[in-house]
């Protein structure tokens, strides 16, 4: 899942009494258009339900529950940091490409970095406690939760596009060097990260002699992460 934090330069246009369209610009996120029904704080899309059904069908209910638990802990980490920073969550959208959290308020670059890194931090704590509890009460759920949370945390720290690592890199670079230099740093990071993912996918394809799944996933992640740049 991915999480989008929109915290600056907010413009709101009311199109009619029943629908609100929010156009938000940011020097990092460029432009995000979010449409939601009036007073609707959580939006679950058909794409998310189809993805959840596919994962359950292919992997079983237990692994689906493990993935949802790991992702939920990750998002709770973001929400906790938002609350500590004095932000307000305007809405949450669950789609096939992840979770999007829409915020109101203005934050410093350091607080933006804290919000971005709080999800992986929560994931790391989940790994620690799942491992500790698993050593006391061994069970398949805790072992799988530890492994999935570790993978999910490392994956989100990848410095690419709108992923947590990419947002933290931009915020910290902007705090130190300014937004223009931060944009150039993130562009270089995006290119190197995309090449690394493609190389990993190609390596899996070569080793397995025909398994395109990793390469397809790499291309999908690159497209979706850079789409919201």
What does the model show?
With 229 residues, this protein is α+β, with helices and mostly antiparallel strands. It folds into two domains: 157 residues, no CATH class; 71 residues, no CATH class. The protein is built from seven helices and six strands; from the N terminus they run E-E-E-E-H-H-E-E-H-H-H-H-H. A three-stranded antiparallel β-sheet has the order 1-2-3, with no helix packed on it. It has a three-stranded mixed β-sheet with strand order 4-5-6. Strand 1 and strand 2 form a beta hairpin. The protein is globular and about 45 Å long. It starts with 9 loop residues before the first strand and ends with a helix.
Describe how the helices and strands are arranged.
Elements lengths: L9 E5 L4 E8 L3 E8 L4 E3 L1 H14 L1 H24 L3 E8 L2 E7 L4 H28 L3 H17 L7 H14 L1 H30 L4 H15 L2
Parallel strand pairs: 4-5
Antiparallel strand pairs: 1-2, 2-3, 5-6
Helix pairs in contact: 1-2, 2-3, 2-4, 3-4, 3-5, 5-6, 6-7
Overall radius of gyration: 18 Å
Principal-axis shape equals globular
Major sheet: arrangement of strands: 1-2-3
Number of strands: 6
What's the SSE pattern? EEEEHHEEHHHHH
What portion of the residues fall into strands of 2 or more residues? 15-25%
As a percent range, the share of helical residues equals 55-70%
Stretches where pLDDT is under 50 for at least 5 consecutive residues are: 1-39
Major sheet description: 3 strands, antiparallel
Straight-line distance between termini: 16 Å
Structural class: alpha+beta
Q: Which whole number gives the mean pLDDT? A: 78
The number of domains: 2
Q: Helical stretch count? A: 7
């Amino acid at each position: 899942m991915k999480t989008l934090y929109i915290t600056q330069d907010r413009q709101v246009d009311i199109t009619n009494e029943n629908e609100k369209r929010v156009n938000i610009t940011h020097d990092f996120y460029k432009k995000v258009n979010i449409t939601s029904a009036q007073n609707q704080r959580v939006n679950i899309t058909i794409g998310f339900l189809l993805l959840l059904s596919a994962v359950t069908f292919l992997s079983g209910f237990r692994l689906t529950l493990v993935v949802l638990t790991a992702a939920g802990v990750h998002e709770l980490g973001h929400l906790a940091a938002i609350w500590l920073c004095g932000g307000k969550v305007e809405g949450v959208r669950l789609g096939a490409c992840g979770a999007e959290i829409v915020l109101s308020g203005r934050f410093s670059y350091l607080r933006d970095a804290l919000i971005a890194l709080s999800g992986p931090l929560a994931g790391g704590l989940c790994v620690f406690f799942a491992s500790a509890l698993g050593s006391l009460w061994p069970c398949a759920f805790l072992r799988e939760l530890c492994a999935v949370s570790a993978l999910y945390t490392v994956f989100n720290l990848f410095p690419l596009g709108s992923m947590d690592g990419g947002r933290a890199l931009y915020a910290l670079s902007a705090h130190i060097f300014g937004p223009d230099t931060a944009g150039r740093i993130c562009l270089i990071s995006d290119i190197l990260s995309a090449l690394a993912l493609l190389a990993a996918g190609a390596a899996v394809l070569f080793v397995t002699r025909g398994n395109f799944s990793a390469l397809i996933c790499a291309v999908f992640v690159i497209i979706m992460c850079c789409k919201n740049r």
